[in-house]
Amino acid sequence: MSFDDERIASVRALISALRLAGVRAVDLRAHVDDALEVSDPVSGDMQIRTGMRVRPSGVDYRIMADASFPYGSLHATLVAAFELEAKTSVGEPSALRAFGTEVAAMTLYPYLRQTLADLAQRVGAEFVLPFVERGQISFEDGQLDGAEAADIAD
What domains does the chain contain, in order, with CATH numbers? Predict the structure, then answer.
């Protein structure tokens, strides 16, 4: 079995073993320069960091986004909690990282998009999130309980 086949098999096993228990925001911040007129939607630079925490009953995947644009900044930290369906072990760290990259990142990104759009709107701005391809947000190199950074620029 090749590395890719093993990776796919480990992610599929975790898809069967874990269920999404919920997504929650744990840190939200927005800042705009109130001296500027804001009218057009803007794109900006965004840095995304990831982390995960293994619990006896499941695993939490964290995504932290810092977006900056000419007249302000946004920050959001979201956590997706996955619970074990049965009394089994959570899995190997490499399998958990692969699951994070293939499943948790794509689960969290729509929530992140909506959260940043809502934050921007609440401070009188409009922010357009850049397109993200599968695998661009990765948990692969991260430490358990750690955070890794990935730049996503417009």
Answer: 3-152 (3.10.420.10)
